[in-house]
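Example record

One chain of 355 residues, shown exactly as stored in the release files.
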Amino acid sequence: MEIIAIIMAGGMGTRFWPLSRRNKPKQFLPIISDKTMLEETVNRILPVFPFDNIYTIANIQQTQLIRKLLPEIPDDNFLVEPQGKNTAPSLMLANALIYLRNPDAVVAALPADHLIKNSDLFLKKLKVAASIASEGDFLITFGITPTHPATGYGYIHFSEENPHRCLGESFYNVREFKEKPDYEQAKLFLKQGNFLWNSGMFIWKAQVFAKKIEMYAPSMLPYWERMLSALKDNRQTEINTIFEEIPSISIDYALMEKAKEVLTCPGDFGWSDVGSWSFLRDIWPKDRNGNAMKGKNITLDSRNCLSYSPQKLTVLIGVEDIIVVDTEDALLVCHKDNDQKVKDIVDLIKKEEKD
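Predicted structure tokens for this chain:
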């Protein structure tokens, strides 16, 4: 069994503005350690995936950064998406290439910017998932056991009946994918107990992915067939044209929500998508008042704050639950409950055509 990792390294990381920028988004920043999140992701999987079996997909500028960070990966494994069109087009392109090279290969599609604390358990579950994927027509995803009624994640509703068991792990049949709920609905999901957060990690056999596109995503099938043809003949201009025309859609909407024989395994390996600044307060070291600070700082009568200020002294007096991020040309101050709105600020900046 050949296992291939596709590292989804595109994306703008807008929720980590002003540190994350268009030219160096979140996955290229040392947010959780002294290594970039992309390097952390690749180092995590090396016990299972040699460099020859690791592929990345991102835009041309990001791919240039990846080459510098990960020179051990073969040149042919750096895949370039002509433009960002969400996860379905990028994964179709990557899977088309692998399908042409080895249709029996098992593919693990993994985001480049997630935190996983228990790498050993993650790799164990990943190997079991690959084994199941190699033997059946399954699309497999890891779900995360909810710890609170989060409204920022999609949810996976699974059946507890007749799970697939392998090497001590249980893989449950997915009943449906749920979009991000409101707070009351999220509380109901937790109460029912058979809902998981959608982690955005997927495992399947390359030829099974092709079959599922044909069966359950007919609107995407013509683009898939054109990608195969263009890759066979090395026609990059045609790939560019396909990405001009293909809908911008996630793999969840395009395929996972419609497909049959989808399995999920609870991922109790210390996962976080590190989706906003407030998540870092649970990762960075904290003082006795719960403040997580990087850079020069002094606090007085302040609690549960997060501050990133490497260039200048930052002083917090009498505040709680505040986020402060200071960079060379921008300063962010917000309440921790509003950190998801940082993305909205980036959208406003774009509308005002500010560089």
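Notes: The CA atoms of residues 309 and 326 lie 5 Å apart.
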